[in-house]
Amino acid sequence: MIESLILQVADEWRAQSAVFDEIFFVFLALGTLVGTIVVSYTLYNAYKYRDDGSDPDEKFDPPVLGELPTGQGGPKAKKLFLSFGLSAIVVISLVVYAYGLLLYVEEGPATDVEEDIEITVEGYQFGWEFQYPDEGVTTQNTLRVPQDKVVQLRVTSRDVWHNFGVSELRIKSDAIPGEYSETWFSGQAHLEEPLEPGETETYTAECFELCGSGHSYMKADVIIMHEEDYQDWYDEQLADAEGEDTEGDG
Amino acid sequence: MSELPPTTSLRRWLVTTNHKDVGIMYTITALFFLIFGGVMALLIRLQLWEPGAQILSGLAYNEAVTAHGLVMVFWFLSPLGFGLANYFVPLQIGADDLAFPRLNAVSYWLYVLSGVMFAISFFQGGTLSAGWTMYAPLNVPMYTPSIGSTGAILALAMFVASTTASTVNFLTSIHHSRAEGMGLMDMPMFTWSMLATVWMMLFAFAALLSVAVILLSDRVFGSLYFSATEGGSLLWGHLFWFFGHPEVYIVFFPALGVMLELFQTFSGRRLVGRKWAIIAICLISVQSFLVWMHHMFLTTINLEIKTLMMATTIGISLPFDLLVFALIYTLIKGRIQFTTPFLFALGALLLFILGGITGVFLGAIVLDYEFRGTYWVVAHFHYVMFGGATALFGGIYYWFPKVTGKMYDEFLGKVHFVVFFIGFNAVYFSMFLGWETPRRVFEYDPAFQTFHQIGTIGAFVLGGSFFIMFYNLAKSYLYGEEAGANPWDYTRTAEWAIPSPPPLENWDGRPSYASGKLEFVQDAVADGGHADGHGESHLDEYPYWDKHPSHASIWPFAFSVATLIFMIGLSGVRDSVSLSLGETLATTALSMSNPVYPVFAAVGPILMVWTAVRWGTEDFYAPPTAIAERWPFHGIEKVKLGMWFFLASDVIVFGAFISAAVFIRVNAGWMNWGPITEPLPGLINTFVLLTSSFTVILALVFARRENAKGLLASLGATILLSFTFLGIKAWEWHHEVYDKGVTLTQNPHGDPIQASIYYVTTGLHGFHVVIGVLIAGYLFVRAARGYYREDQRPLEYFGLYWHFVDIVWIFLFPLFYLF
Amino acid sequence: MASDSIKLYSLVYAGLVGLAALNYVLFEGGLDLAYDISFVGTMVIAVLKTALVVAFFMHLKWENRSLTYLMVLALVLTLLLMSAATYSIT
């Protein structure tokens, strides 16, 4: 957790995918450990105290039909509180740890905001439209971004409730008509090695909220490009957009 | 009509009001719905065999997904729990029956006929395809146009009427009919779990009813709530999940109750930390209403409330931890018998532990940001809900000998468990492995195909395992060994002290724990005998008659059929009737393309009123328990208590409508809206309604003073005042529509949604006034015929309803006319 | 019943009518009050009216207090829903 606070201050910052991987690993490790212990303990005792047909212990004092219920107190109740206390500590610690990382994810990396690229993602039945900062530059079902900038996504919908998610980048946001929700990612932070000119990395975006008969097919490509390739591509888009403008049907 | 025909006749089952019969009907019907929902699941799993398989079209797949969820959550899980509860809660508390036997029968008939309605919806152009979560605006006709979609939601609304009746019934019974000497803390754990369940249901289902009615208003009348971009989608999220989160505990708690019983019976040890287990159950019930936004972490709600909901979500996992440990420690130093019921209860605990741990993952918002909409969520909730509900099958086996008097086949029971457990984990664990697959899709990343294929095979194994149980129970019912009153070694609760199956009126003598243990006391006849116990006696306040309690009535069934007719009619009204507004009322045209739906929609309510009147005038005798523990609701007459529970849930219904109005208005900018109407008609109506409350209380006073003329005059004045209210309201609406152009969907002076909210909310209130007029009319006729001289209770309870309607107006008036 | 006094109920009715009139005056009576003040005043009046109806007409003043707690619980849940949902979008 302290590490994540430091990360917010320093220049190095982490992709959401890295944050997720860390948290998921911690929870999975602890969850598996706790689960294994509890389940094994239960099965062990269930076996140990099975009725094997032998005579009951003298101290065995089972409930009697018609008695008022009293439950069991004594040493077992103490054990109950100990176990409860331990599990509470584990669960609360996990969540406090997760909270620290939540703040980082919500805030986004400490970059110069002017440098970020803001793209509006508009979901519709059944595809995705991406609206770039410059007027007229929109793409359908393909999101191209440069690797060296933080991309701020504003996600909304044209019709019903969708959800824009890219599993590999570990980003996701609800697309609600009338609302704009936000998420961010950065190719540079996510990629293990930076791309050379001419190289791209492609990820798949899917829809994660049932939106109608085409829900299963609602996919888009997210393509991370070298910054020069991206600039070339973007300039082409700008030229096309202006060209359309002068033709009068922009 | 209070003699019950024998169990071999069909008529018996149509007219019975006995809790044991109703319990059997609920259980068997729920198992039918298990098959229905299960077939839907198998269709889904077949489509998942290969990415992009096209066994079902995209739309049909969504229908299967939706039907699977709705049927399993509503028509299978809870009713199975209630089948067991109906049979055994009265026995466990020492009562003769539930507090309101006919209400119990109507709960059942509304339930099963609502299921029929849901099945019919498949044939009305396809059922709802928006998922069991029915998010907005996918749920409005623009995106899900089929008549069957409306039909499915009407079926759900009818189901909620059924649960509301059940809830009021169980709350009153548990708080009013406990045996002498059984304080709340002395109740068995199954009854405790059911008590917590019905407390949650009282408030949660009221919220569901509101959101379903608002949606139906959008679908049948064309209002704009859920298509409004001023927060319509988020409004659905809040209202639905305010219900939806308590719902998952409502589904789990009956199973938890069974686990708590079975762990004790089959280990021979009493529950460890019993008092704390009860406190944990109460805490969870309260906390269940504080966590709902964890279903909305990826929406545009602010970070502060998300953080709060994360904290409350983690908070609610803590009492569950305690319950899990209490169960485990109970086994220690026991003599555990691995019978079929115990195997299912133990299996349920293990599955619930796994599911619960994965829930903690979902509570950590950052992880939820990725898990949202994936199979992680699906696997999690199947482990906790279905895994938890596994205990209900244990309950079926456990109590089967009591209900039928025969023992089930133990070997087949164990085979069922093994096949079930293997199949269950194959389906749902494979979902964890392939968790990145989005929910409700069949075109997925081929890397996950193996996991999904394992899941499909597992699903068929799981489904098949149930046929082992059906065969076992049928065979044992016909040819099984005689079981006797108490086939288990270490039971404690009262149902095991009577024969198997129990006699119609349960007890020989009156069960009492006053001496410190269960005894059957022989009291003198109820007109004066007053036992020594510290239980409270009703004998002084309640007019007893020297009659045998009634057990049969056809009116619950008849009323439910009438309701079904009405619902069917409503489903198609929008498609077959069109209204074109003219300049004046006279030139407004109504055209009908298909008379069937409108005729049903008109005939249905008439039949509902007629059957309700027959119900009211029927000579049905259901006396309250003469001597009972009632704390904390002592000194309150049975029907009055039921009325107050009902009113508490109606507070939530109106509260949700008012919350919706406030929410949308804040989203649109509070000060951007001014009142749609002039305040004067509203003010006059306020005076009218206040005066009618006054005349209603006068009616009660006159009745108590046996002043017949005063009674009739006050009732008559109340009816006249109600008509005045409705008349002024009609004038007001006419003025708005024809003079100002403000209709349900159009608003020349501002946002159209504002107009929708105005008409729907005041319309709902007006509808309550109409119901009030009908009841008042009925009371007037009865009063004129000489009723209510001795027993003024119907007047008093009508008054409670009427004053409540008045109070709602006290808040609506400023909200719509002044602010 | 001791509480069945027509005089008492008439007094309550008169109080209710007076409060309803006050409601109207706060907003439309030409007093020229700030919106906030009128709003709060109206809500206070509404609560008072409700209290009168619930306590006297619905008889809760004389009934087992547990019924009052039941209705308060319902009210609290409603307010929880209303305030949390509304806050979440601010």
**C-alpha Rg of chain C (nearest Å):** 17 Å
Label the overall shape of chain B.
globular
Percentage of residues assigned to helices of chain C: over 70%
Sheet with the most strands: spatial strand order of chain B: 1-2
Q: What is the CATH H-level superfamily of the largest domain in chain B?
A: Cytochrome c oxidase-like, subunit I domain
Global morphology of chain C? flat
Provide the succession of SSEs of chain C: HHH
For the record, the count of structural domains of chain B works out to 4
Number of domains of chain C: 2
Main sheet properties of chain C: none
Task: Please write the string of helix (H) and strand (E) elements of chain B.
Answer: HHHHHHHHHHHHHHEEEHEEHEHHHHH
General description of the model:
The complex is a heterotrimer of chains A (250), B (819) and C (90). Chain A is α+β, with helices and mostly antiparallel strands and 250 residues long. Chain A folds into 2 domains: 2-107, no CATH class; 113-247, Cupredoxins -  blue copper proteins (Immunoglobulin-like), CATH 2.60.40. Chain A has helices spanning 2-9, 16-48, 75-107, 187-190, 227-247; strands at residues 117-124, 127-131, 138-140, 142-146, 150-157, 162-166, 171-175, 181-186, 200-207, 220-225. In chain A, the strands form 2 sheets. In chain A, strands 3-2-1-5-8 form a 5-stranded mixed sheet. Chain A is elongated. Chain B has 21 helices and 6 strands. Chain B is globular. With 90 residues, chain C is an all-alpha fold. The termini of chain C are far apart. Chain C is built from 3 helices and no strands. Chains in contact: A-B, B-C. The interface between B and C is large, with 64 and 48 residues.
